[in-house]
Amino acid sequence: MAEPKKPLHMCISKRSRFTAPSIVKIRVGTAPNCVEFAAHESFLVTRSEFFRRALNGNWEEAESRIVKLPDDVPEVFGLYLNLVYTGHLPTERKSQDAIVALDWAGFWQRANDEYTDLINVYVLAEKLQDTVSKNATVVAIVDVAQLVWHDGRPALPSFRLASKGFDETPEGSQLRRLLIELSGNVRLNHIILRVHNYDFNSYFVKDLADRLDRNFQLRSGQRDLVAIKAAIQEYME
């Protein structure tokens, strides 16, 4: 039996407006690399508490209809806006067929390029207080982690990238939890070499050590990537 479809009609107060006053300009970055985006206020304020507050009340942005994000990267904001409007994150750089043909170094680099984009989008969504986008990005990160090379190896985020994720998120962030779970699937000798040779975020190192210690105590091995995907709700808000 087919599930009932959602009704086509809805409350008039929820309608999107497409007239000129409903358009907001968002200036991202600083000169000479500042890029101006245009978006509908209704899309932004429905998702983001940051935009909801900026575009209401006695703020300059509410009057000028211009929001400035000088500390952010235009390419990342463009990905975020794609997610808000379409529900998709256009971060894949190669087709599946092309990925299969890559050597290990190329496969790993391709995955980490995508992880970089996704982590940056998550960090921006954290700043913009957009929980829906953060959760969608978690799903995308876990999906990338499911990709495996010819010999079954997954391409997990580099420790430098995971450490950067810690640098740019607050304590208690669900992204931090996910990055630790993924990093805990790396071989122990690789972990020791990387942590010894590079200056990582201290909280990342501590949480990773706690994760490995928990594995040892439980003697249950590392939580595999399939289990992480099955429990994906744990990394959402």
UniProtKB/TrEMBL annotation:
InterPro entries: BTB/POZ_dom, SKP1/BTB/POZ_sf. It holds the Pfam family BTB. This is BTB domain-containing protein. Residues 22-93 form the BTB domain. It comes from Ampelomyces quisqualis (Powdery mildew agent).
